[in-house]
Amino acid sequence: MFLKRIGGLVTVITLAFSSTAIAETTSNNAFFHIQVGSDSNGNPILLDLSSVKGTEYIISQKHGDGMAKTTLKAACSQGRLFSKRFSLYTSTGQLTSDDKTEREIFPQLGTADATSMEIVCRVADTRSDQ
User: Fold this and answer.
1) What pTM was computed for the model?
2) Which residue among 80, 113, 128, 129 has the highest number of C-beta atoms inside a 10 angstrom radius?
3) In angstroms, what CA-CA distances link 113 with 5, 11, 71, 93, 116?
4) Domain range for residue 87?
5) Number of C-alpha atoms within 13 angstroms, CB side, residue 81?
6) Please, which pLDDT band fits residue 128 given cuts at 50, 70 and 90?
Protein backbone atom coordinates (compact mmCIF):
# COMPACT_ATOMS: atom_id res chain seq x y z
CA MET A 1 0.00 0.00 0.00
CA PHE A 2 1.36 3.37 -0.98
CA LEU A 3 0.07 6.72 0.22
CA LYS A 4 0.78 9.94 -1.63
CA ARG A 5 -0.46 13.46 -0.94
CA ILE A 6 -1.07 15.52 -4.09
CA GLY A 7 -2.35 19.11 -3.72
CA GLY A 8 -4.73 18.37 -0.85
CA LEU A 9 -5.90 15.08 -2.34
CA VAL A 10 -4.90 11.74 -0.92
CA THR A 11 -4.40 8.92 -3.36
CA VAL A 12 -4.41 5.33 -2.22
CA ILE A 13 -3.25 2.43 -4.29
CA THR A 14 -4.08 -0.89 -2.72
CA LEU A 15 -1.99 -3.86 -3.78
CA ALA A 16 -3.08 -7.44 -3.21
CA PHE A 17 -5.04 -7.20 0.02
CA SER A 18 -7.53 -9.96 0.74
CA SER A 19 -10.14 -7.59 2.18
CA THR A 20 -11.98 -4.77 0.47
CA ALA A 21 -10.49 -1.31 0.75
CA ILE A 22 -12.97 1.53 0.98
CA ALA A 23 -11.74 5.08 1.35
CA GLU A 24 -13.74 7.84 3.00
CA THR A 25 -12.68 11.46 3.27
CA THR A 26 -14.16 14.63 4.66
CA SER A 27 -14.12 17.87 2.71
CA ASN A 28 -11.00 19.07 4.52
CA ASN A 29 -9.25 15.65 4.39
CA ALA A 30 -8.96 15.60 8.19
CA PHE A 31 -10.09 11.97 8.25
CA PHE A 32 -9.11 9.16 5.95
CA HIS A 33 -10.31 5.60 6.55
CA ILE A 34 -9.82 2.22 4.91
CA GLN A 35 -12.14 -0.69 5.64
CA VAL A 36 -10.03 -3.53 7.02
CA GLY A 37 -12.86 -5.90 7.93
CA SER A 38 -16.43 -6.28 9.10
CA ASP A 39 -18.03 -7.24 12.40
CA SER A 40 -20.51 -10.12 12.78
CA ASN A 41 -23.36 -7.78 11.73
CA GLY A 42 -21.60 -6.71 8.55
CA ASN A 43 -20.67 -3.26 9.89
CA PRO A 44 -17.30 -2.00 8.62
CA ILE A 45 -14.19 -1.94 10.79
CA LEU A 46 -12.08 1.03 9.71
CA LEU A 47 -8.40 1.87 9.92
CA ASP A 48 -8.03 5.61 10.59
CA LEU A 49 -5.03 6.50 8.42
CA SER A 50 -4.87 10.00 9.89
CA SER A 51 -4.15 8.40 13.29
CA VAL A 52 -1.05 6.46 12.14
CA LYS A 53 2.05 7.56 14.04
CA GLY A 54 4.87 5.15 13.21
CA THR A 55 3.32 1.77 14.02
CA GLU A 56 0.65 3.08 16.40
CA TYR A 57 -2.84 3.58 14.95
CA ILE A 58 -6.59 3.48 15.60
CA ILE A 59 -9.26 1.16 14.24
CA SER A 60 -12.93 1.98 14.80
CA GLN A 61 -16.25 0.23 14.46
CA LYS A 62 -19.91 0.70 15.29
CA HIS A 63 -20.82 -0.26 18.85
CA GLY A 64 -24.54 -0.08 19.60
CA ASP A 65 -25.61 3.45 18.67
CA GLY A 66 -22.09 4.74 19.16
CA MET A 67 -18.53 3.97 18.20
CA ALA A 68 -15.69 1.86 19.59
CA LYS A 69 -12.10 2.90 18.95
CA THR A 70 -9.07 0.72 19.64
CA THR A 71 -5.55 2.15 19.69
CA LEU A 72 -3.08 -0.50 18.52
CA LYS A 73 0.71 -0.65 18.39
CA ALA A 74 2.46 -3.06 16.04
CA ALA A 75 5.90 -4.52 16.64
CA CYS A 76 6.31 -5.24 12.95
CA SER A 77 9.70 -6.97 12.97
CA GLN A 78 8.46 -9.33 15.71
CA GLY A 79 5.00 -9.87 14.19
CA ARG A 80 3.35 -8.80 17.43
CA LEU A 81 0.37 -6.51 18.03
CA PHE A 82 -0.70 -4.73 21.21
CA SER A 83 -3.94 -3.02 22.20
CA LYS A 84 -3.04 0.15 24.09
CA ARG A 85 -6.48 1.71 24.55
CA PHE A 86 -10.14 0.81 24.03
CA SER A 87 -12.64 3.70 24.06
CA LEU A 88 -16.43 3.77 23.67
CA TYR A 89 -18.28 6.84 22.43
CA THR A 90 -21.98 7.72 22.24
CA SER A 91 -23.62 8.65 18.94
CA THR A 92 -22.95 12.30 19.82
CA GLY A 93 -19.22 11.65 20.33
CA GLN A 94 -19.18 11.69 24.14
CA LEU A 95 -16.61 9.34 25.68
CA THR A 96 -18.36 6.80 27.94
CA SER A 97 -15.63 4.25 28.65
CA ASP A 98 -11.84 4.37 28.36
CA ASP A 99 -9.66 1.34 29.12
CA LYS A 100 -5.92 2.03 28.85
CA THR A 101 -4.81 -1.48 29.81
CA GLU A 102 -2.15 -2.70 27.39
CA ARG A 103 -2.71 -6.24 26.09
CA GLU A 104 -1.10 -8.37 23.42
CA ILE A 105 -3.43 -9.37 20.60
CA PHE A 106 -2.85 -12.49 18.53
CA PRO A 107 -4.38 -11.55 15.16
CA GLN A 108 -5.66 -14.28 12.89
CA LEU A 109 -5.09 -14.08 9.13
CA GLY A 110 -7.96 -12.27 7.40
CA THR A 111 -9.18 -10.40 10.49
CA ALA A 112 -9.34 -6.61 10.82
CA ASP A 113 -6.50 -6.70 13.36
CA ALA A 114 -4.20 -8.63 10.99
CA THR A 115 -5.15 -6.58 7.92
CA SER A 116 -4.66 -3.23 9.67
CA MET A 117 -1.31 -4.39 11.06
CA GLU A 118 -0.18 -5.50 7.59
CA ILE A 119 -1.08 -2.10 6.10
CA VAL A 120 0.60 -0.10 8.88
CA CYS A 121 3.74 -2.27 8.82
CA ARG A 122 4.04 -2.00 5.03
CA VAL A 123 3.73 1.79 5.22
CA ALA A 124 6.27 1.95 8.08
CA ASP A 125 8.64 -0.30 6.13
CA THR A 126 8.24 1.86 3.00
CA ARG A 127 8.93 5.04 5.01
CA SER A 128 12.06 3.54 6.60
CA ASP A 129 13.42 2.63 3.13
CA GLN A 130 13.33 6.27 2.01
Assistant:
1) 0.75
2) 113
3) 25, 23, 11, 23, 5
4) 2-129
5) 23
6) low
